[in-house]
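Continuing the batch. This is chain 6 of the set; chains 1 through 5 are on the previous pages. Same settings as before, nothing changed between runs. Recording input and output for traceability.
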Amino acid sequence: MGEELKQKLFKNKKTGWEGMSEEEKREIYNYAQGYMDFLNKGKTEREFVAEAKKVAESKGFVDVLKCETLKPGDKVYYINRDKSMYLAVIGEKSIEEGINIVGAHVDSPRLDLKPNPLYEDGELAYLKTHYYGGIKKYQWTTIPLSLHGVIVKPDGEKIYVNIGEGQNDPIFTITDLLPHLAQDQMEKKLKEGIEGENLNLLLGSIPYGSEETPERVKLNVLNILNQKYGITEQDLTSAEIEIVPAFKARTLGLDGSMVAAYGQDDKICAYTSLTAMLELDHVEKTAVCILSDKEEIGSMGNTGMESHVFDYFISELLNKTGINRPNLLDKVFCYTKMLSADVDAGFDPIYASVSDKLNAGFLGKGMSINKYTGARGKSGASDANAEFVAYVRKIMEENNIKYQVAELGKVDIGGGGTIAYILANKGADVIDCGVPLLSMHAPYEVTSKYDVYSAFRTYKAFWEAK
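Output for chain 6:
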């Protein structure tokens, strides 16, 4: 009797793999393979957006600026400076009645080149870097690294760089002290063991020219770059070169149940929302997918969500569906619903002390819903209202999608944030809804393939809800 009552009243905390058929497992593994392949092609925001554009156009999406009018069923996109992207499927109802948004970000913690990066010391050539986003600096030493990005010349010529990913490419690394000489270093606090100014990328060691020539190793590196790309040192001042791990996305575990990859925060939610949108045809409310930039550094800048470029995109939809008028944009946002699609800190038994186990997201148990994020006293959180939480629960339960309602660690430990508050400030109902992740912001992050597929199903169900 007590067991029956428990089954009725208690939450179902079983893993999603429990009782799964082999056919269902194959479907999940196949989807995860597509995800890993995409990650290997799109390690940076520019690369991710370029790949997203290709697959979107293959599914019938067109640039909104090329459309004179829009009608229900039309599929459009807008790309903002090659680093963020918005997609939409026009719904049967007027946009005036609100839209349904799933918003993710495609930037990830990394190292960027400084404006004047190249130097020689000790007859070795290096590139100076400036880290981007919240990283543990020691994790970026002694691992294989690759160079990705673009160099733009004053005449407008763009040169794309991708070195370190190909089988025959050289890789790069940041050196560290040998233990024998690191006694002073190891006495320091973990966060001070490696200084940001010492995250310098080892680039080359062969000199060029006679001994009388100064900085011969640097000269040889520049000569190689000039021959390969036709650039000079001055051209590096107008470049955006990112240094990312050269690791490939791989299946993790003897059971094949997990994904290990760089940049899963937040490309996992970006990929799952993108592929969910590509499967939409006719929706009741206009469906919008956000692939934003700069989230890891506060969403500032003209490619971040704090910019008004997203408002411009929605205004274009209003104009081209023929219903725009003054102040209508504000009304649209006030009737809008949004899933802020960003990762959650998965429960890690090795570091259990930082989590409240009753309010943590676990790998393999489906989507993590965060009613609020923020830090300590909910600082910086948008805090979804109970009515919207219930609305999202209804979608998940009606579609038999496993979910867990969680927080980002213990109350006084720390916290984090997403783009949720930005759309909430415009008047939308927003809640964070993403995938639990281990080793967040590390060069290699871990997720469950079950949760990856759950994200795809969740975002599709959200857009298709009546």
